Request: fold
Amino acid sequence: MIELDCLGQKCPLPVIALAKRIRDVEVGETVTVLADDPAAANDIPAWCRMKKQEYLGSPRPHAFAVRRLS
Amino acid sequence: MDAASAVPLHPVAAEALTAALADGWADPARLYSAGRQAQQLRDATHAAFAEALGVRVDEVSLWPSGTAAAQAAVLGGLAGRARRGDTLVHSAIEHSAVLHAAAKGKSAEVGVDQLGRLDLDAWDRAVSAPGVALASLITASHEVGTVQPVAAAAGYCAEAGVPLYVDAAQSVGRVPVPPGWSLLSASAHKWGGPPGVGVLVVRKGVRWISPYPQDDLYRPGVPGALDLPAAVAAAASLRAVLGEAQAEAVRLSALVDRIRERVAATVPDVEVVGDPVERLPHLVTFSCLYVDGEALLHALDRQGFAVSSGSSCTASTLRPSHVLEAMGVLSHGNVRVSLHRGTTATEVDRFLSVLPGIVAGIRAEAGL
Reply:
């Protein structure tokens, strides 16, 4: 599991970071993105849907957990 | 390609505006001949709007903008029903003008699905709840083009005895608005009239109380002087636009189909959003993954294309579009293309030919 600190970054930067770094975890493992841009709460789940990854929800404010499925 | 914001002035509007500037400058309330001439022109303008919209003349009022008309509809509709309730039910995808009016008091929001279609079951429950004064539904989304089930929503409102206000800014002059509503607003610069003219229709029997201080005139309504020349031009252009609406809808809808198909086929990682069938004829929205919306807008502008975006980086609020959020679709890299009578197939094809390269360039700069 890795955590990406994208606090202070504007969208689409947190989503770009997620797309680049998800390859660094094994299938089935999770990546947590820390992002406070207001678009992240919408765009990270949307990315998961488009790229067939699993959105696990927001465990705490400004944190978004994603499980690699492929 | 941003007709949903404003359309270039229709030639009929330009002609009518010039003529009305000469004949309609006077105060219609005055008793000398120039005043009477202005009064006649004003009455003829109201009559032309009534005929174009299929309503009675005394149901029409003209406002300084579509936003002013929309807010008067909401606030006046709520005031008229104050004894029955205090809550406004509205869809999650209303125009911000309506949402800001809603924020003045109590409101209940009804969601949409991923295509941007109103959740009718939730709407039924919301309008049937006690204390509802008014319901507000946009006839078709100004951001994604999805046409809303106005007739069905109006049916639930009628069962509950709640008047329905429809924001028809994107529909009037392009597609028919289904019946069943109590209040309707529209905006002239969306159909080729001049900016600064909003239309409000309040059907007979609907209680509407002006939310604004009144003047000395005999009938409650819009305070202050009407921009009569602009109103004359708006009415003349609406009549002209309605005459060509069916043919234009067919032509533009085919261009939108082409954009929907080519964008999905030629741009990787793109999401074309909104209902592909139940949609406005002239509007399409898509979002490109990993692309900064502002960069995309500027790159398209350099190629001569004026488009709009719902991405947060392009908004004065720095928040993503509430419509895209309500649908749960990607909000960054968002482009809204909306076409008008001056848009040609050649222009659309050129847009489609430059877009994939622009998107690829922005992605390459981001290291993808």
Summary: Helices of chain A lie at 13-21, 40-50. Chain A has one domain: 2-53. The mean pLDDT of chain A is 95. The domain at 2-53 of chain A is CATH 3.30.110.40 (Translation Initiation Factor IF3).
